[in-house]
Each structure stands twice: as C-alpha cells, then as structure tokens.
Amino acid sequence: MAQDASVNSGAGPRADTAPDRVARTQIKYHRWAKTDRTARFGDLFNLVSHPDYLWMAWTVVARNKGARTAGIDGVTVHQIEQRGEVLAFLSEIAATIEDGSYRPAPVRRVFIPKPGGKSRPLGIPTVTDRVVQQSLKMVLEPIFEADFLPVSYGFRPKRRAHDAVAEIHYYASRGYRWVLDADIEGCFDHIDHRVLLARVRARIADKKIVALVRAFLKAGVLDELGRQDSTDAGTPQGGIISPLLANIALSALDEVVMAPWQPGGDQATQWARRKRVRHGLGNWRIVRYADDFVIMTNGSRDDVLALKEQVAEVLGGLGLRLSEAKTRITHLEQGIDFLGFHLQWKQRRGGGKWYCMTFIADKAFRSIKQTIRQLIPRRSPRPLTAVIIEVNAALRGWTYYFRHALAGRRFSFLRYFTWRRIVAWQREQRRWNWSKVKRWLRRPDGSWRPIATPDAVLFDPTTVRVERYWYRGTKIPSPYDPIMAA
C-alpha cells in the first residue's frame, strides 16, 4: 500500500491527468475493500473536495441530459460555462466543503408522466449539489461495489438491463421456472434513513462522509407551489447519489436470498444444488435491477411462498413492503414482464422442444406506438425533416434496446405503423389523395421508396439485426478491477 500514492496524500503534481489519478485511487480503495470485507474506511472526506474529483464530477454533470435544467436557484450548467466561471465555481464548492459551511439545498420537485395516466415525482438538485453528489458517489462507489453481489444489475458500472434479462433466461433454461414476480411499493420514497445510514457506517468510518450522506437524505423538497417538505424517508429520485444509496439498502435483500450460494452454503456448488434436487428440495436465485426483482426456484410453488414471506420480512426491516396488487407467484409458462421484456417458457411451433423465449412486452410496444403518435400528430405545421429526425431518435433507441428479443415481427409492424402515420399526416396537411402519395413515394418500377427529405431519411426498424444477448455471469468487467476490465 505504501507504493500507491493517494489523491489525498499531499503528493506533488504528476504528469498524468485527473481521470488517471482518480481512477488509480478508486482502484486502490476497491482492492482494499475486496481484500477485507469487514474494513471500515476513514479519511475520505477530503477526497470529495479534491480538485481532481470535483473536476471529474463536473464533466459528468455537464455531459448529463439535465445540464440545461436548473434547481431551485435557477442556475444551469450552460450558464456557468457561458460565463467562463467553471474553475471559480468548483473552487467555491471546495472551499465550502472544507470549511464545513456547505449545506445541500432542497431539490425542486416536478412530476413526470407514467403509463396509465399516473405520474412519478422527480427531484432536481441544484448544479452545486449535483457536482458534490457525483464527487461523493465517486468516493463511495468503489468501496460498496466490492460488497454488491453479481445478481444486482441496476445503476451499476458496466452492467445493464440486458444482463438481468439474460440471467433470468439462463436459469429458466436450467429448471428455475417458479417465479416470485415482485414489486416494491414506493421503494425510493420509503427507504428507512436509519437503516440505510447504518449500512453506510458498516463500511465508512469517516463521520463527515456519513454526515454528508445524511444531509442529502434530509435536504427536503420544494414543490411547484414553493412549499418545502421534509424528507424523513426515501432517496428522492433524480439525485445522482440516490441510485447508489438505494443499492446499498437493497443489497440487504440480495445478501439474505443469496446466502445459501455463498461459500459454505448448502447451494454453494453445482454438486450441492443437484443433491438438494435429488432430495426434493429447491434452489433459488434472485435477479434484481434497482427496485425491480424476481426470485426464481427449481423447486415448487410452496418454496416461492416461503421465499415471499422471507422477502417481506427483509423489506420490512428497510421500511419497505411488497405491493400486493403487483406482486405475484407464477410459473414461467404464464410468462413474466421484466424491464420491458416478456419472458415465457414455451414450446416451439409444430410441437418442438420447450425453450425460455424472450419477447417485447405488450406494455413496451404500446409505449413506443404512443410515442410515435405524439411525434406525428394528424394535424401539425411542423417541417417533415424535423419530425423525421425526432422519430428516428425514438425508433433507434427503442429498437436497439429490444434487438435481443424475438422482435422481428414487431419491428416490421413498427415500420408499417410509422410509415402509415407519416403518410396520413402528409395527406391531411397537403390535401393529397392516394394518387399523389404514389407519385411521391412510388418508383418507376412500382416499388416504394423510403420516406425522406434532402436532409433526413426515415429510419427502418427492420434493418436492426436481431441477435441473442448471452449471459455474462460473474465475467462482467468492473472499472475498479483492472484485471477483469482488461
């Protein structure tokens, strides 16, 4: 350890860059955390205000889509950049953190629509708080990543929703077909602060870091009417640090459910799991993406019922509870929806073999169709080029996300749906009949040309290659483990 120069060691300037220095420090703390699972880390607070960490935090915040969005102070990232005050802004943040005068401001609460007419509260911190939260996250994440189990995928570096879906597919194909399809009621709004801070203290001995985490949790929210509400529970959605804190809390669920898989457990090896099956006992596994999770077993429905009671008990200790309306026990023959995908144990056409098949969920398909309807209204004076550009962005993002499902038919229908929508809009706008549409889009040989303008061509979803996403298991690289990341 002596040969590793820490960012906060007071070492002289180096020839390398800030990202290199921050990455080296993160790798060091991650390695220590993996080496000693009981170690508690002190002397971390000055990292949060270190110029390297603040500069890296600023670059992340500035690249974020919310850079043009202001908190309660009305200041945006672009305003700070246009005034050329970035370095002064970061220096002021560092000074307030070091002298103890920094206090997080309440977040500005807005409501974003959800499918079904409901809305979700979203907290928008000030730019100052976003930078400090990002810096704090860069300090804490390498340490807690050493503790998180590989069954957790949401809001973790180098992991994605497709990995979680691939794990469900992998174990379903190996007999894990009774499923607890769970939903936590208002997860981000009800996590118990005391329990969460206790889990932070289990790894962090620096009292100033714990106090800073607590300050963000208790910062409060300012609603659209200017009223300030306290936050006695939960991690408000929208904060940069919130997903990490939620994972710290919910990792308690992973640890309890996966305890038999740990070394010495009665499901720790493939041989032990097969022995349990021979004796009529089930094995189980959780797959979690943030607050969405399923628990799979190769046992019976009774095993899932017992697991549900265990899960309810663990969540109760975190201040959470399962939604009775949305949580269900099912067999994969009936299928489950997870992260926009529909997974089902089905027989191939013509009486062939049975497989776990991954489709696009109906809800996700209805969502993209509604998005297309909104982008292509029947009556709109907007230029065709502008509409095509926006539609292309929506189609590309959606199709590339779902290209690992059995999506060919839905991609074909989406191409037809979008084409018909644009043609109907142009007919309404230009008072065209079908003869004029044909003159616009038909080639001399009778084939149809793509809808296009001199500056844009309508994206064709069927050009996206549909391919399987393979389960990566424990081989997912970690940015804090240079051996795995290599």
From TrEMBL:
It comes from the Bacteria. Pfam families: GIIM, RVT_1. CDD domains: RT_G2_intron. Its EC number is 2.7.7.49. PROSITE patterns: RT_POL (PS50878). One of its GO terms (molecular function) is RNA-directed DNA polymerase activity. Residues 1-20 are annotated as: Disordered. InterPro entries: DNA/RNA_pol_sf (IPR043502), Group_II_RT_mat (IPR030931), GrpII_Intron_Splice-Mob/Def (IPR051083), Mat_intron_G2 (IPR013597), RT_dom (IPR000477). Residues 93-343 form the Reverse transcriptase domain. The keyword Transferase applies. SUPFAM superfamilies: DNA/RNA polymerases (SSF56672). Keywords: Nucleotidyltransferase, RNA-directed DNA polymerase, Transferase. The keyword Transferase applies. PANTHER family: NUCLEAR INTRON MATURASE 1, MITOCHONDRIAL-RELATED, PROTEIN YKFC. This is Group II intron reverse transcriptase/maturase. It comes from Candidatus Mycolicibacterium alkanivorans.
